[in-house]
Amino acid sequence: MVRVRVRQHVNPLSFKYQQPLDIPDWSNIYAELNQPLHLDLGAARGKFLQSLAQIHSNYNYLGLEIREPLVKAANLETEELGLNNVYFLFANANNYIGKILASIPELKLQVITIQFPDPWFKTRHSKRQIVQPDLVKVLLEYLQPEGIIFLQSDVHKVAEYMSQQFLNYPDFTEKFSHSWLDNNPFPVATEREKLTLAQNQPVYRILIKKQA
What we know:
There is one protein chain. This protein is of the alpha/beta class. The protein has six helices and seven strands. It has helices at 47-55, 68-81, 93-102, 133-142, 156-167, 191-198, and strands at residues 37-41, 60-65, 86-90, 109-115, 143-153, 172-174, 204-210. A seven-stranded mixed β-sheet has the order 3-2-1-4-5-7-6, with helices on both faces. The longest helix has 14 residues, at 68-81. The chain is globular and about 40 Å long. Mean pLDDT is 87; it is low at 120-126.
């Protein structure tokens, strides 16, 4: 098991995260390129996607993470696990999401997850939040009809903000009649979700669907 200590929060607007992005040859990454894709923005240590990749081998999984040491450790562990349907990419999602998705042959983006992103509470730091209008536009373009977006946070204000950015578009509708879900619809939870629930803290979840 690889353990890496890194800063919990980094400024995505800093010069380091504006550098040209090195996109791999996806045919060397995924054994089956034409499988549906699950995109996880802010993948952290990658445990969530690694677990899903073992449960659902008929999906490809791509995790974007802005903290490079975590990406290197996650890919190393993925290789040790012998998984050929999951990969982690060091990238600032807001700068490169369009380029990344355009680079994947036979793309069938079916699932998007954004879980417990850095809250950036101060108004002057709002541009550091991962969910920005331009990001939503690109995700809307590539997400398949009836594809889903799952959002969750332990900060009510952040969860509301994220969900509203997607629901501003008529293409997206709430999958359920109420906003906050009691349970995670996926068979595994992120490390942050486990910690939050263990501390008896609330988690605000919403599942959003793109119309057919």
